[in-house]
Amino acid sequence: MVVTEDIAQDPNWERFRSLALGHNLHSCWSVPLLSHEGSVLGTFALYQNRTHTPDELQIQQLACAAQLAVIAIRHERDGQRLEESEQRFRS
């Protein structure tokens, strides 16, 4: 998990600071979305309109939301593969 408590002060946000602050985004928490094989599927990010550090419950909730996103991505990809397989079979 990557936590940016204050976008205005974080050096990693230098390139995008004005864009984020211009949209009233002041903190960001981000979790990688990883497949069961360990490959990166994407990230799940949550932005807040205030500077903030997540507490333990918020960390658990973000991890749960990220895991649900992984399940949804996997379900969608499995459905696409099944549909492609059915189309090949019917051809």
TrEMBL record:
Gene3D superfamilies: 3.30.450.40
Domain GAF residues, every copy: 2-73
UniProt keyword terms in alphabetical order: Receptor
Top-rank lineage group of the source organism: Eukaryota
One Pfam family per UniProt: GAF_2
TM region positions: none
Protein name, UniProt field: GAF domain-containing protein
